[in-house]
Design goal:
The complex is a heterodimer. Chain A is an alpha/beta fold. Chain A has one domain (about 30-140): 2-Layer Sandwich (Transcription Regulator spoIIAA), CATH 3.30.750. Chain A has six helices and five strands. Chain A has helices at about 1-15, 15-20, 45-60, 80-95, 105-115, 130-140; strands at about 30, 35-40, 65-75, 100-105, 125. A five-stranded mixed beta sheet of chain A has the order 1-2-3-4-5. In chain A, α1 packs across α2. In chain A, about 35% of the residues are buried. By secondary structure, chain B is an alpha/beta fold. Chain B has helices spanning about 5-25, 25-35, 35-40, 45-65, 80-95, 100-105, 110-120, 125-170, 190-205, 225-240, 250-260, 275-285, 295-299; strands at about 175, 180-185, 210-220, 245, 270. In chain B, α4 crosses α5 (about 80-95) and α9 (about 190-205) runs parallel beside α10. Chain B contains 13 helices and five strands. Chain B has a five-stranded mixed beta sheet, sandwiched between helices. Chain B folds into two domains: about 5-165, Globin-like (Orthogonal Bundle), CATH 1.10.490.10; about 175-285, STAS domain (Transcription Regulator spoIIAA). In chain B, β3 (about 210-220), α10 and β4 form a beta-alpha-beta unit. Classes of the chains: A alpha/beta, B alpha/beta. Chains A and B meet through α5 of A and α9 and α10 of B. Chain B: This is Regulatory protein. Chain B: Keywords: Phosphoprotein.
Chain lengths: ~150, ~300
């Protein structure tokens, strides 16, 4: 009890301890062809989000990927910090010539973000991972006229 | 007639009235059954009217016994509050206004005071007068109770209808594969736009929609607040991966928006729902044209 109970709170408060405390906590980044797939689950703590940003940028720089899909269908709470990190991931990927699509946002999360004034402009969005993959492979961009 | 009784006197007088109402309940109920209020509500059987009259008389006796002649919250009224509400509602349904209902309740006073006067050997004695005044006060309170019940019933109806309106007024319609539309009708306030947003986002998930059309043909006016609600909805739909198109902006509204300096630059707009649908279809590579002559002939 003491061991498990002690690890949790330490992980919440200190990003370094969280990263060192267990690799089970880090978010897996999968490479599917030219696309990186990142699936976020449950609550994402600030330290993990920053770690993820770094991981994704490294992977894009070292492998040749043209797109990143971030699946947030398992995320129930997106706060302003995570919103900003997601926007930063997209901006960083853009600099490395990869496009980022945010997939599977829940209605409740969308409403919360809008109420917070975080409309995440410039970020591509898709209903689910399938649509996001379609979008990236077809090379279609949201909001631009194409038949 | 002035109410000259003092509080100290009121107690025994009230008890007297209570005892009288108990004693003469049957007689009063019989008289009331012929009064307009009971006669018109209980048209089917007179017994029912008498029964209702008895219940009201019993409630009045209970109120008088508690001495709270002028208190519309007196616990004695609770027993008949529902019944009085139903009676008033039934009168209102026949087109009687609250004033008319009040007058009919007031008409109950005369039969009751008549019975009360007959109780006394000398109807003009001060004692008799006092009792009549107390009964009059009590029946005045009954009138207030009836009106209060009517008004609160009306408020309940309004609240329920407002809720229903929220549900009914925001249907999300699937127009085509991956295309949903919300025809907005009536004024958009914060509560409604919240409902619209929620149902639209749920529909986007359920229908796997790529295009969501917000048709505001039925929205009478667009001010900066409404525009803000629209933009929020559009932004939320975009976060879900759907493209949102606002259609049905009437010329007058377009001018208002420009005059107010509202920037809808980030929102895709089309003149009519048909134009918006055409846009959504063309983006999906769907073309609609006339049926070839051979097919038309085969039908």
């Amino acid at each position: 009890m003491t061991g498990a109970g002690g690890n949790g709170p330490a992980g919440y408060g200190h990003p370094v301890a969280g990263a060192a405390g267990g690799h089970a906590f880090t978010v897996p980044v999968l490479k599917l062809g030219d696309i990186l797939l990142v699936t976020l689950q449950g609550e994402l703590h600030d330290g993990m989000a920053e770690q993820l940003q770094q991981d994704i940028t490294d992977r894009i720089a070292h492998t040749r990927v043209t797109g990143v899909v971030i699946d947030i269908s398992g995320v129930e709470i997106v706060d302003s910090f995570l919103g900003r990190v997601l926007a930063e991931i997209a901006a960083g990927a853009e600099l490395l010539a990869a496009r980022t699509v945010l997939a599977g946002m829940r209605p409740a999360v969308a409403i919360t973000l809008v109420e917070l004034g975080l409309t995440l402009p410039g970020l591509l969005t898709a209903l689910d991972v399938e649509r996001a993959m379609e979008m990236l492979t077809a090379g279609e961009r949201q909001g631009e006229g194409s038949p | 007639m002035t109410v000259s009784e003092e509080n100290a006197d009121q107690e025994p007088v009230a008890q007297q009235v209570s005892a009288f109402l108990e004693r003469r309940r049957e007689q009063i109920a019989q008289r009331w059954a012929d009064a307009a209020l009971f006669r018109t509500v209980f048209t089917v059987s007179r017994d029912e009217a008498v029964e209702a009259g008895r219940a009201v008389a019993a409630a009045l006796a209970a109120v008088a016994a508690s001495g709270r002649l002028e208190d519309i919250r007196a616990s004695g009224f609770e027993a008949v509050r529902d019944q009085l509400g139903r009676m008033a509602a039934s009168r209102a349904r026949t087109g009687l206004d609250p004033d008319g209902v009040a007058r009919e309740v007031a008409a109950l006073r005369e039969p009751a005071t008549e019975v009360l006067r007959a109780e006394f050997p000398d109807p003009h004695s001060p004692e008799a007068q006092e009792c009549v005044v107390a009964l009059t006060v009590l029946l005045g309170t009954l009138r207030l109770v009836v009106l209060e019940t009517t008004v609160s019933a009306g408020e309940e109806v309004i609240a329920r209808q407002r809720e229903q309106l929220h549900e009914v007024a925001t249907p999300v319609i699937k127009l085509w594969e991956s295309t949903v539309a919300v025809p907005l009708i009536g004024t958009l306030d914060s509560a409604r736009s919240q409902v619209v947003m929620e149902s639209l986002l749920d529909a986007i998930v359920a229908e796997r929609a790529r295009y969501a059309i917000l048709d505001i043909t039925g929205v009478p006016t667009v001010d900066s607040l409404v525009a803000q609600h629209l933009m929020k909805t559009v932004a939320a739909a975009r976060l879900m991966g759907a493209e949102c198109i606002v259609s049905g902006i009437r010329p007058a509204i377009a001018q208002t928006i420009v005059h107010l300096g509202i920037d809808l630059g980030t929102v895709l707009t089309r003149a009519s729902l048909a134009d918006a649908l055409a846009y959504a279809l063309s983006r999906q590579g769907v073309a609609i044209g006339p049926v070839p002559a051979a097919d038309a002939g085969a039908r």
